[in-house]
Amino acid sequence: MQSLAEFCAHGGRLAAAARAFGGGDWIDLSTGIAPWAYPHGALDLTRLPEPGELAAVEAAAADAFGVADPARVVAVPGTDLALRLLAVVLGAERPAVVRPGYAGHAAAWGAARSVAAGVDPGDADLLVLASPANPDGRVTPPEQLRALAGRMTVVVDEAYADPAPGLCGEASDRLIVLRSFGKFYGLPGVRLGFVIAGPRVAGALRQLLGDWPVSLPAITIGTAAYRDAGWRGEQVERIDTVGTLLDTVLSRFEPVGAAPLFRLVGAADAHGLFRHLCNHAILTRPFAERGDRLRIGLPADGAALARLTHALSEYPR
Fold this sequence. Notes:
By secondary structure, this protein is an alpha/beta fold. It has helices at residues 5-9, 14-21, 51-65, 79-90, 103-108, 142-149, 182-185, 199-209, 216-227, 229-249, 270-278, 302-313; strands spanning 27-28, 73-76, 95-98, 113-115, 126-130, 153-157, 175-180, 193-196, 254-259, 262-266, 282-283, 285-286, 293-297.
């Protein structure tokens, strides 16, 4: 039987899925990334970004996040790298990571102990978690995070919080917030993210990142997107509409968790369900530690939704 280890590690393994289950017109519902991308035209690849352009994307992001001082918003080439840099900058002796969660959190803090959501991390001097959480969409109450930040450094990954401001406006050197551009705007390949922190952490990150932390195309697209309130509102409507349709299609399964860009369902044999969908060229996200859970992202259009509906109709009850 085909091992699912590669598919449990991350979403978006379309090439591996095609090798394992055969070719075809694959639908990728494994990533929790919006299937509608922010439109972009020709991009300049002939020069390095100017300092003013980098400042512009940080200012546009700060405005979208509700942060008064753009100097606290640091552009990074994706939050996965930012996590690893923060591990260097923060230098925690007793880090803790909330699990289950994004694998990159544990990878960045390799010596961290795992704690369950809602469990007091005890004597930890740093806590890393996602809110909304991946894969169940759980939102940790802001007052709980504020209280924890009074005792330790708290790193909150808000990759799935857009377009809401979340905790960005309250970020400090003790309450550090991460934002990912690619998920809500449907452009993960741009590799753009942001760390919102206080002046000490923001300054240390800028020193590590150097003069050109992100590419000119990322700056150009990000600046335009964060300034485009109209498109942002349309994206929210698309996500809400398709999410409601997806809920109907998945109604035969136990609803375990949800975020705007994905649903987590329970099934007695979720790995079997994963393989069944792969045999219909539909990629979802299984989990090694929970063989009874499957995460499913939003279909891009009516045709993709119809294919998912048909595939699920052939899965034995």
